[in-house]
Amino acid sequence: MLMRTDPFRELDRLAQQLMGPGTWSKPSAMPMDAYREGDEYVVAFDLPGVTADAIDIDVERNMLTVKAERRPVAKADNVQIELSERPLGVFSRQIVLADTLDTEHIKADYDAGVLTLRIPIAERAKPRKISIGVGSGHKEISG
């Protein structure tokens, strides 16, 4: 039998049970990090225990939507659950992307329970030098 030592874990578990698992109509949130790395934005989502085929990534205009489903593991008939704290159900996160990001070239990788999206910065948004033309003469307007 497993023993818990964190007094707040039981409170968290109770709150999760009251809210229920995420469903397709009311998904639970998933934790994420977002940061800029060079010429791209990186967004990493924690999805431990989710298979890659249970993840759905959509982009519509500037709205990025990530949905994932953690399904229960099949158990044998003679298994008795002693403790179940890992949430099951549907998880979702929506992010509004800036117009300066190139949504046509998003790359997605999934490794060790972390979904990482790399979104390049659009060429039009990158800093660039403007050359200054030197005129051959001055023009005056007289009236």
From TrEMBL:
SUPFAM superfamilies: HSP20-like chaperones. This is Hsp20/alpha crystallin family protein. Residues 23-135 form the SHSP domain. Gene3D superfamilies: 2.60.40.790. PANTHER family: HEAT-SHOCK PROTEIN 20 FAMILY MEMBER. It comes from Streptomyces sp. R11. InterPro entries: A-crystallin/Hsp20_dom, HSP20-like_chaperone, Small_HSP. It holds the Pfam family HSP20. Belongs to the small heat shock protein (HSP20) family.
